[in-house]
Design goal:
about 425 residues; alpha+beta; Cytochrome p450; three-stranded antiparallel β-sheet; about 50% helix; binds protoporphyrin IX containing FE
Length: about 425
Amino acid sequence: MFGPIISLQFGKHLDVVASSPEAAMGILKTQDRLLSSRIVPTAFQQASLIPHSLIWSECNPTWKSLRTLCRAELFSAKALEAHSRLRQEKLGNLLDFLRRKQGQVIDAEDVVFTTLFNTLSSIIFGKDLLDFKEEHGTQDELKESLRTIIEYGGRVKDLGSFFPMLERFDLHGIRKGTMKEFNKAFAYWEDIIEERRVQVNSSTCPRSKLNLSWIACLKMDSQITKSIKWLCFLIRTNTTTSTVMWAMTELVRHKEVMSKIEEEMKKEFNSDQITNSEISKLTYLQACIKENFILHPSVPLLLPHMAAETCEVMNNSIPKNAKIFVNVWAMGRDPKLWNDPLSFNPERFIDSKMDFKGQDFELLPFGSGRRICPGLPSGIKSVEFLLASLVREFDWAIPNGEDPSTLDMDDKFGIALKRKTPLNLIFKQKQENTNA
Ligand code: HEM
């Protein structure tokens, strides 16, 4: 196979890579039913984990009911509305922290990750699991475990995945290492779940206050609870954090773009707190987010799909069990699709109807079809609110007055495509906000 669909034979595995909108449509729409199975990365090939995982399980009835449950409890418009108070609260904590640390060098990824993680842990468990402090303690260990899991998840140098007969030996210790870190994290979470269960049973906490943790404790069985932990803590925090980090990087590099967002916000915002309706008016910010997805899709090859049956895409035969990647990273750099693709040019989305919701096959940061990211509405809200709040409240600077154009733009492949080096920034409260 060649052209927009290529195939690569690695050991016994056949990998198929699609890198044009037509090929993506063939896979994610025309043959969606047959090409929506999954191949589980080595790190997560634990018999005990796969059945609980919305992400890695087959498109079977359990997967369907998990998606339905998540849509209703986590991602519906009603659920998003219900979570907006918590989101505001966690954003408030972030802004307070940065105000206190004004003038100091901050690892932007650490604070964004902590904010997103705590928003979700408060929705699920009714409690923050991380803090912004840099001292060593349980929370830092938890952060470290999560980082290591993510790193293992992206490991591709693994003989076992090329030669299945070697798979069970776990030659690189990937499965063992991942499980060790998971067990540490699970132990931490089990204690919290137990704490909430006791609260619910003894009614020491009003049900309304327990939010989804109430449902998590009572309505869901332990399998579902486990899978939701999986889904939430790994995927959400990493994809969303990496999206925000790349967008912040581009804004630091492009002062003129930052100024346009500031202007737009001055025009559209009336109240102290940023609301959903105000965010929806920020068309230039939304154009920046789309542009960021072209250059920095946080899942550059989508999650690997697998062919459940042999089928054809654009006259190419895709054999049963082939591993399928949709290379959205390459599509974002294709000059046939985008004029001057490597420039950061949000203007291309002004007056354009193109969106990232899975209908426009040039722009698929969340995938499309039955495996499309179910967290899209929530992920996008988080990205918009975080960026809008940070731009509105602070001026951002690179330490030592370095030239923004020299910022390291290298990336690192893990579960999400992250910046290779930390984005260190100094935040300074904007003049107009200090007087408020
Ligand atoms: C900007 C943020 C995000 C981006 C760019 C993103 C992107 C993606 C992509 C590309 C996929 C794979 C689609 C495929 O295999 O074809 C995916 C799957 C998934 N995402 Fe997201 N995601 C984001 C946020 C979230 C959030 C906030 C959640 C949940 C709270 C979430 C939960 C999931 C789940 C559960 C899957 C697997 C779905 C399945 O296999 O059925 N994502 N995401």
